[in-house]
Design goal:
Structural class: alpha/beta
CATH superfamily of the domain at 20-29 and 188-547: Alpha/Beta hydrolase fold, catalytic domain
CATH architecture of the domain at 20-29 and 188-547: 3-Layer(aba) Sandwich
Helix content: 10-25%
Radius of gyration: 24 Å
CATH topology of the domain at 20-29 and 188-547: Rossmann fold
Number of helices: 11
Amino acid sequence: MRTLSPSLGSLPFLVAAPLLFLACSEPAGGDDTSTGGAGGSGGSGGPPSAGRGGSAGTGTSSGGSAGTGTSSGGSAGSGTSSGGSAGAGLSSGGSAGSGGAAGASGSGAGSAGASAGGAAGSGAAAGAGGSSAGTGGAGGSGAGAGGAGAGAGMAGSGGSGGGKITDPVEDPSAACTVGELPSMSSLMANDKLPDPFKKLDGTAMSSKSEWLCRREEILKQGYEFIYGEKPRTPASAVSGTVSTTSVSVSVKDGGTGMFSASISLPTTGTKPYPAVITYSGVAANLTTEMKNRGVAVINYDPYSVGSETTKGTGAFYSVYGMNHEGGLLTAWAWGVSRILDVLEKNPGTIDTTKVAVTGCSRFGKGALIAGAFDHRIALTIPMESGIGGTPALRLIEQLDSYSGSEWPYHGISYEPWFSPSQLGPFTNANSASGDNTNKLPIDTHEIMMLIAPRGLYIVDNPSTNYNGLDRNSAYVTGSIEAKLFEALGVKANFTYQAASGSHCQWRSAYTAPLIANIEKFLLGDATAETGTFATDLGGTKPTPDSYMGFTIPTLSGEL
């Protein structure tokens, strides 16, 4: 990871699916308070063509020549064998899938199960009769075919991804190859939002299926230029316990760090419960709506993972060092991911496929980044997040340079929510003269897009009561985000509700969209009507399209 020296010159709320984390804090002093292993091994040597009567396709044949099921990129070549061949399991994804057990050799050969993994797992064992094993490629998917007796692969937790955008793993696109990131000298000023559909090689996305690897390019640039890298913590480095009242986390990955979060179970519903992870507690209205619908509430203290008071302390920095480049938003998001790891390793109480995350003000920023950086979160609910949250950084100078607004530099000078070393070269003052974030190759509209196709419900406050929320930039960025989700074919998975009032105070306008998102992403009701957009922003609203430096494409296929 490139380390940059600073040379140039907030408040969010977020919730993530089936598990929800939410928190609210008030402004202080005028500011916001706020793997899997390698792919499974294929069969013995030879091309991936199908064979009959002893010749093997994918997997190893018993008695004949063997074919190899190799994969490349996102697709796997598979040759199906019949009549005496043994199937071999192939993992979906090069770095986090666990392959299935191999079928037995002989005339009644079984087929191994394909897996989409998260935890490091082993590839399938080869059947008898072959001489050399082929390897499953990164990001490919395919299953060996055979007769009876299939070995089942299983998705794991944490670490790298499995290779499909729907895989419930921390980073499903981890196996994608990311080219060279742009150099600082190559970055040119651009007041309009960058094109999220333009890949690093300069070509444009034409199919929704390309989003899997395009999101990895955006994620890597987010680490490199804004937030600092979120380490890929091996599942084997994480341990802990889960009870009906708490979850404890211990991580040993270089250094050692420990923290815990409280759990409040609902009085309705059954185990395992969907859950919402809240950053240091949130409005009682939100948690009440959750618990009334059978959703557990996990109260997470982000300061136990990364402190604002004493820089470089907390569980994250105990593990990775006080000088790690990751800013507080990265550290806090890492803590949410480790809670999910422990919940996965201790099933029965919480359904980790139905988790949301939320928070308000600075913790709204935190919830947004937790949802963007961990694909296991089903619903993300950032509330009044301000700078460091949903508003695009380069738009502040253009749309919100009035008294009391918060500039990007606020996110490293007031508190290091961003990474000072990574964002520092783009901003060194809370003013137009010190802000060069228009040179960033990405912006927050792309960071929010990382959440797709999962649920994102933005709760905002365009009131003039508190100028620190950058209301115009928030509106423009949210309006454009709705179009980005629509381009990916998941328009209904983005909801935006802005209602004016006191900071971090729940308002009735927020409730109906919240209930719809709970029902859809945490309770599994596909008919719930999400995807609404509403605001009471006063005055002459800015025109969102005039801040887009690209045209929304019509993408073919499916994600």
